[in-house]
Design a protein that fits this description.
two-stranded antiparallel sheet, 2 strands, about 160 residues, mainly alpha
Length: about 160
């Protein structure tokens, strides 16, 4: 896939993530579950690879925070999930592996990484495990939606994921 396709496609995913992610959420405990971010992580990981998926996740988190529609907790979860989704997909070439990487990366590792941010920067005094269920729920729902969208989209797109992403 040409670099221009990756940049333009990533930009479109960032725009979708900022617009839809801010309007579609599920409140779960202290966190807001934004499954759109996970959908985008899986799609970006499969189509563009781990580096572009992480850049998309960072850009979406940054823009949403600048607009006041996001949380600092989005940074570790979304970026770790995007990275693992991309790596799992690269190793297996299976969409469900990308979903698994997203759920492990965001739902488990990202939720635990969010704890120090919540404690030191947001003043939340909850245990680290308090974040696991909301993050895992959101990432599971989003990853499965991402897999469904990928199955639909990849049959219709003129550009397929490259073998070297």
């Amino acid at each position: 896939m040409h670099k221009t396709h990756k940049v333009v496609g990533s930009g479109l995913l960032v725009a979708i993530g900022v617009l839809l992610g801010s309007n579609f959420y599920i409140p779960i405990g202290v966190a807001k579950a934004f499954p759109i971010q996970h959908v985008i992580n899986v799609i970006a990981a499969v189509i563009f690879g781990p580096a572009y998926a992480v850049m998309c996740a960072f850009a979406i988190s940054l823009l949403r925070n600048l607009m006041g529609t996001g949380s600092l907790l989005a940074f570790p979860g979304s970026m770790i999930g995007a990275f693992l989704a991309g790596i799992f997909y690269l190793k297996t070439r299976r969409h469900l592996a990308a979903c698994l990487g997203e759920v492990i990366g965001t739902g488990l590792i990202g939720s635990l990484a969010a704890y120090p941010i919540a404690k030191w920067f947001l003043g939340m005094d909850h245990g680290a495990l308090y974040f696991v269920i909301p993050f895992a729920t959101s990432s599971l729902v989003g990853a499965l939606l991402g897999a469904v969208l990928l199955k639909t989209l990849l049959h219709r797109l003129p550009v397929q994921p490259s073998k070297h992403t």
